[in-house]
TrEMBL record:
This is Similar to ankyrin 2,3/unc44. InterPro entries: Ankyrin_rpt, Ankyrin_rpt-contain_sf, Multifunctional_ANK_Repeat. SMART domains: ANK (SM00248). The keyword Repeat applies.
Amino acid sequence: MIGRDQQHAFLRGFEPELVKLMFDTATAEQLEAWLRLSLELAADNKHLELISRLENAGAVGSRFHLAVRQGNGMLVADTIKRGESPDARDGNGDAPLHIAGARGDVDLVRLLLSSGADPNLPDRKQRTPLHVAARYGHAETAGALLSGGAWVSPFLDSESCSPLELAVRHGHVDVVAVLAKHGADMDAAASTGLTLLHLAASEDMVDLLQCLVAGGASLESRDTHGSTALHIAAEKGAAAAVKVLLALGARPCEFNGDGLSPLGLACKGGRLQAVLAILAANHRNPIIENDVVNLRFGGEPSPLELAACHGHAHVVRTMLRHGADVDSTDCPYQPALHRAADGGHVDVLKVLIDHGANLDAVDTDAETALHHAATFDQSGAVDLLVRAGANIEAVGEELYTPLHLACRFRKREATRALLAHGANVQTADENGCTPLHSAASNADAQVVELLLRFGADTATTSAAGSTAADVIGHNCDGEELQAENIEQLESLLICAGLGDINND
């Protein structure tokens, strides 16, 4: 975009021609708009001689507003006395009360109100003077408007914001206090669907939280997701807000619509300071009937399990120090060790193991954390768990070992890690199938080659009497199974001593 100095340089000397062009060719509406804009600019710059010339040329509406902008009460009063409407709008659609409200000129606001100005007159964006005063934090002006008849009920602008919401959004505690004194609903929903308490909590606005609650806002109000303000503060990591809400009486044992407590949300997001704030409050006032540290709803994860699942080792360590159950296995839950293994969170696994996590603990499918690491191809987790003493030959339902699962789900890195640690390639599941059967049925030549390299027997048959060669591609659909894959697998198995392949 060309800068203003360049524009001036290009047009310098042509000013008279531009003015002549405007007067000769512009429509009446265009000329009126141009004169009005010129008058407003002259007023803003206090160019009195130019103001007079423009008014003589037909420009209207700004001398009054200039007086308002300058806070010249005498001129405003005189202009109104001479017949100007106290609600006359300028070219932007602003009435004098909007201008005075934005400036925080309480004396001028009172003068305009006493002269009959409408305190609820909306501008082009449906903002009343109270909206404007609230937006810019002018508490005394807001009070004057309210005393002069401004509506305290949530009159909404074009963005569905009330004066109270604007005051909260911009952190104007004094304005909120004035609105509360005049009966504003502290539990009114904001334009986002949150309550104002939720909004203040999400932004860590401590003074506003205290002001809203003092004005009647309920700590138990919930948003559309069933979250209280404490849930929101914990989720956002607004630790100061968490402390204040707890001190004001917010309940840390409430669940939101997703079945998560405030502590659970803080753990999920790795919000350590919020976690510490909740734990400190619980330490000062233990909730005997509901252990906040291990609190869970139905089948949802505990706070510790949420932290482990999302890889927050620092939070996991803190939770364990405050009494979190490292091996909670109540059905239908997965222990924290399993959840960390799913995501390959090695740092979390180390913390859990250092705090005595049971490496042989199983989930509802009778699978260990090592099974999970294999299923999700987490080779680093496989290595750590095996070195820490996890049973590499542990069997889950259907007698699957971790190696079975790695081969079944085409997890090549996990397969390599398990084989490197000595996993038995000949272990059979309840159907008599070895890991080689699983790899062959997936037509996974790389895994088949790995297994053969570590001694897998191509002649081993399943309970149904099938060798690995017999089940090539059985777990593949037509798009996955290609002729070259079959040929490659057959070649591998033949070279390993299979002999002729039965293609039937």
